[in-house]
Amino acid sequence: MSWLYTTIAIGSLGLYASAGLLGWEFGSSAKKEVPTSVRQAPGGYRSFHFWHTGIRGGK
Amino acid sequence: MNTAFNAKVGQCTGCGAPLEFKIGTSRVIVCQHCQFAVARGDRGLENLGKMADLATTGARLTLQLEGKWEGTAFRLVGRLQYQWKQGVWDEWYVSFNDGRWGWIAETQGRYYISFRVQPRPVPPLSALRPGKSLALGGIGAFVVTDLKQARYLAASGELPEIFKVGDSVGTADLTGRGNRFATLDYGESGREDPELFLGKEVTLEELHLLPQNLAAPPSQQKIKTEKLICPTCNGPLELKAPDHTLRVTCPHCNSLLDTQQGVLKHLAHLEPVRLPFVMGSKPKFFGKEYLLIGWMERACTVEGEQYTWEEFLLYNEKDSSFRFLVCSEQHWSFVQPVAAGEIEEAFQLVTYRNKLYKKFSANFATVTRVYGEFYWEVYQGEQVQAVDYISPPEGLSKESNQEEVSWSHAIYLTPQEVQAAFAGTGRRDLPSPMGVGAMQPNPHRSSLSSAQKWAVVFTAIAFILFLFFSIRGGTVVFQQTIVPEDINDQNRVVLAGKNVGNASPSRVDELHFPTPQQPWAGRVYFSKPFRIPQARRNLRIQLTSNVSNSWAFLGGAVINQATQEYREFFLESSYYSGISDGESWSEGDRNATTYLSSMDDGEYVMRMELGWNPKYPPPKFSVELKSGVSRFLHFFLVLLPILGFPFVLMLRMYAFEKARWNESNA
Bridge-partner residues for B587, per DSSP? Predict the structure, then answer.
């Protein structure tokens, strides 16, 4: 039982240290890239149609 | 007590053989030729009559044996045998070199040395009960362990007192802490000022009695057992502990037989039993070899339900002592007697050798079945009050009736340990224990103890890491407060708040007007470029608004200018409050935070799509980006397994204890 606990605890501490040192976050959005076609278009990533946020809002 | 008598030599009044009192304190001498007892007094020698033959008791001590007690040499000069309902015991008259005399009692492999002391005021014999505490003035506290009505049986050698064979005496044995022992001798008439003998339980080593001078162990003494024939079935019987056995069952016809009168006497017919071990097996427990000589089943009734357990009687042939191996629901324990005076009782607790035991059960234990040999007059239906105390893996048991109280100490054994003890006796596998045993060690306790120690270490490491990340701190890379102009004014952009570093708001790029499908008003801003100085750091994005009973949101993205890589996020700020039924309430949070994982360093632009409830004027938006933020959530998450594991173990430990104490009726 204690080896299991030790393994889990050391693993957790390792994850914590890694997250702190490497800036890991849970549930962070994935990195995306602005397509070349958008980059070459006038306004680049500032164009309205590139950003499609959909319906948002509270109650 | 030193008392000298006149006559030192004389002639036996029975056979005329010369007699010599070698000890000045002796009053009686038993002629070794004709076994007449002769007493000396002021008027010469007096014939006390012929002595009966000494009973075979398997005694290890012998007349003329020399030893040493507390630095003073002694010699055993006389032997007096008492008989009571559970057998015969020996009292050895001890003469010391310094003129003192005392007694050494020998019974079932146990030895008690005692000296007559000044009587103390004590209750009459009729007022004593086994288990009663008794304060002997100036001596200390004792516990009454048994009350006996015994009679003189036989004697040899010299004796310090005049006695008559057949006379009975009432005695009370007491024990105190530190193996102290005392006897109150109330005599035949139960006199009010009983003689008091004080001493302690001792070992042969403490008496400096050399093994080579002792009588051979009973097993090696040539006792003729082949003559025993069952009176019921005429089957041959062999007693394994002939010096102690008072009851034996016939292995052929299951008759319970009495062995006391020299001939076997049928007492009852018993049902045959099936035992896990063969009688006569020689198991070894704690380095000592025992002989399995008896078995009995006992039962108690709790709330209308009968519980049974088995007790195996073990006999040590070397020191003539007895032990029990107890099996209850396949939970085993090794039991040995302890002196009542060593136990301190206090309500539901008792203390023995500085260890606390909790009361577990109190029942009337009744013998339901027996098999083999017993050193007491066992019978079906024999009942005692039994109180059990536990301190796993140990336990104490108090058994008492009107005549005696006895305490025993038990230690838990696993079936594997019992099997190992019986190794070579043919027994292979014992069934697994059922449920939780009263003295069964909690298997989670040691795991928990170990886990708790490690949890402290792991928590300390986690805390040090948390401190390190906190002290290292983060860097605010962008901060801006924006109050969008009213949505109906499409030509002006109002930006408020201070700029941070090189970050400052840029122009309005888009406007959003509420529609039935998207009922929110909004504007999109692009920040001026800002820099994230260090790679592999998280990025905290915080939105704060001043909404009230409304909502606002920030949908955005941070775009790496060099790589054109971006990450999107969404934050909502909302706050509602009011009074319902006279009570104020609020919900929501004006602050919203999100984190982006492991950002690259470099120059970034942030797209901010600010939205709000179009029924209200645009709120004030405050946005802050901070790189390299220490996360308390991560610290908390790492503590979950570190502390959770011991917590689960603790729950399991308590569940185990609960199951144990569910069986308690204390």
Answer: B576
CB contact under 8 A, A57 and B537: no
Tokens of B458: 């792991």
A12 touches chain B (CB under 8 A): yes
Q: What DSSP letter does each residue of B16-74 carry, written as one string?
A: --EEE--STT--EEE-TTT-EEEEEETTEEEEEEEPPPPPP---S--TT-EEEETTEEE
DSSP string, B466-501: HHHHHHH--EEEEEEEE-PPPTT--S-----S--BT
A1 touches chain B (CB under 8 A): yes
From CA B100, how far away is CA B117, in angstroms rounded? Answer: 12
A20 inside 8 A of chain B by CB:
yes
Please spell the DSSP secondary structure of B521-560, one letter per residue: EEEEEEEPPEEE-SSSEEEEEEEEE--SSEEEEEEEEEEE
Cβ partners under 8 Å of residue B458, min gap 6: A9, A10, A12, A13, B642
Q: Is the pTM of this model over 0.90?
A: no
The single-letter code of the amino acid at A23 is G
Q: Which residue has the tokens 């405050």?
A: B622
Instruction: Give the pairing type, strands B602-612 and B530-532.
Output: antiparallel
| CA–CA gap between residue B466 and residue B486 (Å, rounded) | 45
pLDDT tens for B577-595 read 999 999 999 999 999 999 9
Residue pointed to by tokens 């198991």: B283
Residues from chain B contacting residue A21 (CB–CB below 8 Å): 536
Strands (E), B238-289: 247-249, 255-258, 265-269, 284-285, 288-289
DSSP B503: B
Task: Note the pLDDT tens digit of each residue in B59-77.
Answer: 889 999 999 999 999 999 9
Where does the pLDDT of residue B302 fall: very low under 50, low under 70, confident under 90, or very high at 90 and above? confident
Is the separation of the CB atoms in B124 and B187 below 8 Å?
no
Higher pLDDT, A13 or B511: A13
Amino acid letter for position B358: K
Q: Which residue of A28, A45, A56 is in closest CB contact with B520?
A: A56
The yes-or-no verdict on residue B1 having pLDDT over 70 is no
Helix or strand (DSSP H, E) at B246: none
The helix/strand/coil state of B509 is strand
H or E segment at A43?
A: none
B14 neighbors B37 (Cβ within 8 angstroms)? no
User: Per the structure block, which two tokens stand in for B560?
Assistant: 């790496």
| pLDDT tens column, B379-413 | 888 899 999 999 999 999 999 988 889 999 999 99
